[in-house]
User: What shape does this take?
Amino acid sequence: MYEYLDQDEDRQVHADGPPSAEATGRAVIRLLATRLLTTLVTLAGVAVIVFFVIRVVPGNPIAMMLPPGATDEDIARLSALYGLDKPMVTQFGIWVAGVLQGDFGTSITTRQPVLDLVLGRLPATLELAIMALVLAVILGGTAALIGTRFRGGRREGAIDVANGMALSVPDFLWGLVLILLFGVLWPIFHISGRVTPSLDLPFTTDFYLFESLLRLRFDLWADIVAHMFMPALALAIPLAAIIGQLLKQSLKETMNLDYVTLARTKGYGETRVILREALRNAALPTLTLVGVQFTFLIGGTVIIERLFSYEGLGNMAIDAVINRDLPLIQGIVLLFALIFTGVNLIVDLLYAVLNPRLRHA
Amino acid sequence: MNLNRRSLLKLSAATMAAGTIGLPTFAQAIDELVIAYNVNLPSWDPTVGPSAVNPTIQGIYQSVFDQYILQQPDLSPAPGLLTEWGWNEDRTQVWMTVREGVTWHDGSPFTAEDVAWSLARVANPETGSPIQFVWGTLANHRVEGNRVIADVAQFDPTIFKWMYFLTGYVLPKAYYEKVGPEGFEAAPIGTGPYMVEKFERNAFVRLKANANYWGGKPDFDTVTIKFVTDAAARVAEVESGNAHVTLEVPYEEYDRLTQNGPLAGLAQPISDIGMIFLNDIEVMTDPNVRKAAAHAIDKQAIIDRLLSGYGVKIDTLQTPQYAAFDASITVPYDEAKAIELLAASGYGPDNPVKFKIQTTRGFKPKDYEMVQAIVGLWRKVGIEAEIEVYEIAKHFELRGADQLAPAAFYNWGNSVGDPTTSTGFAMFGPSPHSVWDGEDLIGMIGPLWGETDEAKRIEGWKAVDKYIAENALVIPLLQYVQPILAAPGVTVISHASGALLPHLMKRA
Assistant: This one.
């Protein structure tokens, strides 16, 4: 990922002493420019692939729409109405020209502008993914800390077994287990939706969770959390296992380093050594992983949102594919690609800031 | 604030307690009826776009909008917004009498202008109605008092049946022209039993009872329809008391929850059928192969073992509720006869006839498993069929292009029960949706499209069905049964069209 980092240059910088703020700024700008360029190329590639692939695979929206009894003329009429009668390259040109002007077309099934639909659903998916990430970090981090603290003992063994189970069961199955446990047997969470329909929502944005906190509407916040908790936990469990394993491994390696041994000789307790001395250095590889996994987490929301009838982008994506809603599929895929590349860019920048080797490059 | 383990536990408990406020339970009286629905509602216009021809969401449309003619639970027509209708003597005009005293949800009066405008709108090719080919058979719509008259551009004996079928809804002329398509999508109004109060796409729609409904105010003042597309989640919704009614759940779950559980169940046959299209290509041009394939299927055993007995065996494309159903037409399960027929064409268990069968997987209950069972039964008599799984979208495209495999499983809905919209559309060769192109069948069906004598028309379709059954041009399998689960406080009336209608639900 960081092939642009020249090892000789890295050594040279160290030899010359600490870098100036100006040098650090230049490095970050260079990184930003490079990644923005690759992001644009990636998005263009995704746009081409998604546009042509969904038109090549069998099943077109007109065939889905027409009931038996329709004639060839009816097919031609509706194809023209939705602009599907033109050559594929022409259609692509029209779509790209629209996208460049902020017009992603109109959804065939909902008859609404694609951009409005996608942007309207994005906050729900982002909130779900962020909540899942927070849960994964809490669960995985706690498991790693306990496992490190009691390494070699039964508790570490139990955590390893739990991690193995969490990883071997896919997120949608965790979702079903959670529905059974907390939706049916002990019904403390809502099984479907994002918020109770009867509630009046004073929100001006679609970020319900964040806005309810900002407005200090804890009643709404609790209702939203009660809806989001199970899908977020289902998404979080496999990721928590990955975080737990990696962080525990890093912590165990760090615990053998000289400076940690020095801390022990100063008389610090094991828990303090782990939390105060080892954790900061051991967390860096985990941070990169969390960034990469966040993009997969957003991808994972597709199935989980469907299972929990959560009104996010993933749920909408499945409907779009079932109905062969070509403009909507294109819009959703392009937005997903934008999120993926954006998150990767943020992670790279964060890594550059936190990693001393890159910071000094 | 100092956070310790105790305060964290307290906070967690408080959050859970607050979050669970509002979860309904069976013990509570039902103030607001909650229905866990099996599909999303993509669009509110019931006359244009793909949603308009999606049979699974017609129940939601019929809660808000009225059709021209009311369809009763047994599929028969009844006076609705139109109180009377018919053709003139020489079938060159249709006339419709419009109900008086009806109001739209915004309080404005419903008039004959609304009916004439609605009919003219969907007849216009530019509006994008998928059923324009039907509505376009009427022209020159005009209002005379509380009557609407239209000229018959092409006689279609089923035109009034379409008035309680797909896209047959009356929309508000003045309101629609004022707010436009986008405004209507955002705030739809109709004359139906419920008014839209709140709609979150992919999440729920909240409905308020229409106190002025011409058919009487519904029993439940507020109805929330939650879109829960996953069957397991729907079961959990009703089992936990989060929803009071749901539908299309696995039959095993239906039995579990109704036989030993707290829920009431309703399992009635609906107008959907399962069938196998036969394409007249490759080995399917051999009548012995087709007939053997039909006789080798033990439909009742498949229904009993795979669908827990929830299904009705059929031998034509007509169900017992359809106008042209003829109980005397049968294609019995006969393994020996199937072996004999195949032997006549040189095939047998040691020299099987081979072809491909396509099927969806999970689109209808146990669709793939049923095809697996059929392939197993076929193997016993000397038919080796290779299964190809495809998406429903691919089925539509292949069927439209006449490129289906020699055999293809499909489900067919026909909620008006007319033979035209079952046997007619499925088997008439020139239609892009039929894959059987035999000239003999085209010759039999052709005259029936414009037959003005209703009794003669129905008898004609029965003869077509008999010919199809005798020659095994298609393999009808079963009529589906729709499982509905309801909480003890609700009584549900099943509609044979498959539409789940909140205004037909009563307090128990």
